[in-house]
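Support request, please re-run this one:
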Amino acid sequence: LTLIALHSKNYTEAYGHLSLAFTRLLSLFSSEQTAWMMPLLHQTIFDASTVADLADAAGPVGSQTHVRDCSEKLQKAFSYCINHRSDPNGNSIGPESPDCKQRGVVYIVVSSFKLYFKMGNLRPCKNLIAPVEMPRGGAPPLIESPHIPKSDLVTFRFYKGRLCVYEDKYSEALVELDYALEHCAASAYSN
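Re-run finished. Output below.
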């Protein structure tokens, strides 16, 4: 149904279908042993964010209804992932384990940053940065994990740098933006 609505350029209807699918996916994802669903969650986040933006652009000027709804769903996904710290047997796990949902947190944070910047609402960004950069019970911060994809790390540092510019923290912004530029793929001309 989403594809039919997209083909007919009915972006509001398409987002409605995607939103429903996203909600159902999150209800499944909240249970244990669903880390294997992370690629599906990431694709759903990408699709929902893109279509939410199209739906808002097709609606009344300044409408952010769909983007706001999508950001609320991303908050739930973030919560499910960041709080996942044990396997089904109750053993403590971290991002080094393929069964840990924390591996997908940075992608969710980056996707949330994109939506918050579109909405012009940057306050929630700080709430997303702290859990990713704080040490976790003797373990290094999640952002330092070698299991975080480089593309997510570069985009995280880029948005953090932009946020620092808005907060007049220019020296910190320079460090973050320099990192993003130096580690950005050479083939990513649009970046």
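The chain has eight helices and no strands. The chain has a mean pLDDT of 87.
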